[in-house]
Design brief:
The chain is built from 17 helices and 18 strands. By secondary structure, the protein is an alpha/beta fold. The strands form three sheets. Strands 1, 2, 3, 4, 5, 15, 16, 17 and 18 form a nine-stranded mixed sheet that branches. Helix 5 runs parallel beside helix 7, helix 9 runs parallel beside helix 10 and helix 10 crosses helix 12 (296-302). The chain has helices at residues 38-44, 99-115, 132-137, 153-156, 165-182, 185-188, 204-217, 229-239, 243-249, 267-275, 284-289, 296-302, 317-332, 340-347, 349-355, 388-395, 422-443, and strands spanning 2-11, 19-28, 31-37, 49-52, 56-60, 62-67, 118-125, 141-148, 190-192, 195-196, 221-225, 257-261, 279-282, 305-308, 372-376, 401-406, 409-413, 416-417.
Amino acid sequence: MKYLIRDSTVVTGSLNRLVLYKSAIFIQNGIIQDIGESLLLEKQYPSATRIDGTGKVIFPGLINCHTHLLATADKGILEDFGFPTTLKFPTTGRGLLDQDERNVFASLACIEAIKSGTTTLLEISNDITEYAQTLDSTGLRVFLGENMNDVDDSKLQEGIFEYSSHKRDTAIGKASDLFDNWDGKSNGRIKGFVAPHAPETVSPELLRASRDLAEKYRLGYTIHLSQSYKEIEAIKRIRGVLPTHYLFANEFLSDRLVAAHCRYVDSSEMALLGQKNAGISHNAAIGARRGAAAPIGELLSSGCSVGLGSDNMAEDMVEVMRAALFHERVRRNDEMNPQPEDVLEWGTIGGARTLGIADELGSLEKGKKADLFMIDFRKAHLVPTLRIVSSFIHNGISSDVTDVMVDGKWVMQDSSIKSINEAKVIEQAEEIGHRVWNQLVKENPNVPFPINLPPGPL
């Protein structure tokens, strides 16, 4: 299909941060073939389907480098009780979902992602094959990471860190099966990603096996790193070093690594990550909710690439970008840095660098894949349009997003998602969410729970 989005403003996201006015983008076979003056391109490509971009601004699609889609089942509860959570239930609402219900919440999360301009996400979960087809059907570009760990859970409850070779082999087998069945599907829109869980839950043997798996399948790999004080204390106790040093000692650091969080890394850890040009997923919104701020300026200076992630309970990448701006300014006590253009870079081409796809995605330039979203700027909170990126980062909301394209195909047009029955999914998720949390409370009457759940769905 050939499209010409005309009479629009284009935020290219290129290295020189060029913004083009009264411009058009010509897209054919999923690739941006041309960008330029609207009148000129209309004459040059008369057979293309015209899309009116009057009053709209086109941005590169947002890239979510770290998320857990099914955590939307715990929305409204787990944001406010620390990490690891201080609630003493044996599981969470998402832990009670059956396979059909997991697909509902995967769809719910994808609705929120699409409506906030997300075109690419890295999903990390257990048994991800149960809803991989649902993710594919949304039209999003998705990296699938089967969560792997080999810690003995029965011993872990007693504070003992022992590791199971059987559990390790099972985890590697499940990840390999996922890649064999899904990596490269849908014209490469679905890819695999190796995802050992966290330093304290992964043995040296699994760290090295994960790196080998990534090399075998030519994939990136990710791990939660320095996300809590408990993680740091555990690694210091069982390994005698800081978490990043543990990864370094097992040859786990490289430019194909996406380290998620990095909230409490010290200067020596940042130096190691930067030396290896590792990628960082800065999960600013959930970090702010948990009172933690990653040292993003220092990580960038060390040589790391930085992308953004939503992590748990929410998929709104517009909120994530704003949180990243505010969080870093407060952390630095700096009124001017970072700038909105910096944060948009983290959410687009920075994320593409972090996931190893910057040659194909992350900016609107000739030869790159057509992953983009459009904002209606004719809103009271966005005008005057004197500095478009700043207006969007400071004041934009996800409902400003009207159109989303992935791989040259419309995933959403005129605020209507193409591939998901939004009303049905919302109704189902509302009912399921109430049921599982009420079930959890009922089955654990001795667990203190400082919330009075409502009598039922609204």
